[in-house]
Amino acid sequence: MESVITDDFAPLAQAMQDRAAAEEDYSAQLAVYHRGALVLSHSVGEHLSGDALTCVFSCTKGLSALVIALLVQDGLIDPAAPITDYWPEFGTHGKGKLSVGEVLSHQAGVLGVPGGVPSRVLMNSSEYAKILATMPSIWPLGQNTVGYHAITMGVLMEELVRRVAGKELKDVFEERIRKPLGVDAYIGQDDSLEPRYRDVLPGASAEQAFFDPFSPAGLAVNSASGFALDSGPVYNWHELANARQVRRLGPASMGGVADAQSLAAIYAASFGPVPSLGAARGFLTEDTWSRVSAELVYGHDRTSGLLQAFALGFMKATARNDYGSIFAYGHDGANSSLAFADPAYQLGFAYIPSRNEGEKSTSMGVQLSQLARQVVIGKMMQAKG
Known about the structure:
Shape: globular
Radius of gyration: 20 Å
Number of strands: 13
């Protein structure tokens, strides 16, 4: 990553330096664009220094949602339309009443298959999509029930893109977002980038959560069979991310590889110009980003019990996860990463640590996002004189 620390946003870099001084082996990347300019690009610790790339887990869902947003802008997808307008086979067991928006905001109740699925299915989303289409929801539909589809959300998005665009989601991302901007954020990493990849490190907490394979949480993470790969089963998120097979394939739910500067750049360019990347305007119009980022569901998540809010594939800010304004759209990841756009503050933001940071009342990514907003508010007040 390019090293940039402007005076106004230096407090964010200092907050990372303070944590690095207090916590052995802390390593992380942070990048912020404001009004289309790179105002902060900073890393601490050795692990994610220089040109390092790493897995960004469910931040990939946010990148995938940007692809969906482009297809909405193209007129190929109507979030309010029944999902069966695009995917007729999905309508079994009463699921035909679901809209695209309901499906892509974690309301469909097709979290996974009881007992898990084998690697040939887990790593083949078109096959997995056929199974999900035939399944009933695990909860009554039409009641605004939300449950995080940790793996299957990517399958749902990928199949929808196939149906309407005739291409793989990762190919649309490459052609219309990554390549035009020239950034290092990949859904499906090329083997030539392997020397830059840095493993996700084991989480801060050594204790592994128990996932009952027949519970909502267990279904969502395919827990009964672990994450079955060509090299054998793995049972931890960081192990899955570090499998070369996974980052080469780039599952839309969790297989993205990036650095923080590239994630922040993509989100900044989604709603506004980023001259340094040759983007004269945002690749989403205001009508589009406001439409796809509108909150569609809010409530206690059936898989975790935590309060969640979702838009069309994007995670929305809540009091528990206060990463941005009501206009912000983005996603966090299992390694405590966070990336988003916030048009209210004209921010593109990304934070990537080397490991899951454990349970905290306020995550480091959210703390830094709050500090970024405070900086912007201060600048606005100063400008008003």
